[in-house]
Amino acid sequence: MADYAWRFLNSWAVRALCYPRTVDDYLDALQPLWSVDEIRARIHCIKRETADAASLYLQPNRNWHGHRAGQHVELTVEIEGVRHSRCFSLSSSPTDPLLRITIKRNGRVSRYIVERAQAGERVVISPPRGSFVLPQPRPAKLLMISGGSGITPMLAMLRQLQAERYQGDIMLLHYDAHPQALIGHAELLELRKGLPGLRLQLCFTREGLGDSARFSAAQLETLVPDAADRAAFLCGPAGLMEAVRRHHLERPFRALSTEQFVLPALNVRGEGEVLFKRSGVVASGASAGSLLELAERSGLTPRYGCRTGICHTCKHRIIEGWVRDVRSGEVRRARDEDLQLCVHAAAGDVQLDL
Ligand SMILES: Cc1cc2nc3c(=O)[nH]c(=O)nc-3n(C[C@H](O)[C@H](O)[C@H](O)COP(=O)(O)OP(=O)(O)OC[C@H]3O[C@@H](n4cnc5c(N)ncnc54)[C@H](O)[C@@H]3O)c2cc1C
């Protein structure tokens, strides 16, 4: 859309003329990528990475203003008429011509994208979010530890460092079940050509190596004896993240930055009685962990996104009640506020406007 057209459509006069609908409602009918409010992107092409993972290359509209390598976006797709949002790290660097996200098949949204999304389709994305980014100035020695789809923000950072002709020392320690599950293997080998200091250490946990392939202090000592001198970046399954964080407490890296795709299984049980007032459903808080899980167990289908407290999609009004933040353990009385259901459990009787 040309600059003057965008400014005109974004003016208060045009917005007022469109009321009670939005300018975007009308633009939708004309050109699905045009929007004055949303970042809409066309799927330019799809590349299969492994049997279970695919990369979407996205051409965003003019509302996209760039990102920093390592950040994520919230991607919204429409599946059978219902909009679903999930967070995905960008696996492209800001210097790449197209945005890329790389998705591993898991549940509803990722399965849809990996199996059914088509080039030409439109998706909606949020502005880039998160502080999992390379510091300035760049550290002389980096350690990237990833597992499974946790490789995606590392790919973005490596691409960024390659574009900058980074001359420092990078150790990428990556864990996957087996070589066929590894996303971006060819790309990593290619990246090595432009990054003379990049070393790859791939550990496959289902190769008959058992625990010896898993992260441990002894393994790190052997593979990366100077780990304590390195700025470390960590992204992977909950178990790996937990083990590396514990290690960092005992033998700290120079710095540790983390990106969490999934929360570890909650050990928390709710308490009291939860009333989902609008649905007229009452459930025992003890029958689930988070209020989101409790709602789902009770047959309700609230919208959710990250399930880790990042995206705020699952926020619902709490009328009144005692809640526990499952991340910090903090218990408090909440009243008439929007509450993230995925990271709160009932700590007593709760009434929700749901
Ligand atoms: C910052 C961030 C970045 C991310 N980046 C990437 C990335 O680059 N690549 C990537 O592949 N993924 C990434 N993810 C993960 C991604 O956002 C999704 O969580 C993942 O794709 C699964 O979504 P889904 O819709 O396929 O699965 P869902 O259908 O949402 O299911 C996911 C899990 O939610 C739970 N669940 C779902 N429904 C219920 C229910 N009714 N009751 C109880 N539990 C339920 C289950 O544990 C299930 O395994 C990222 C996540 C975050 C937070």
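^ flavin-adenine dinucleotide complex. Residues 273-352 form a domain with the Ubiquitin-like (UB roll) fold (CATH 3.10.20.30). The two ends are 40 Å apart (CA to CA).
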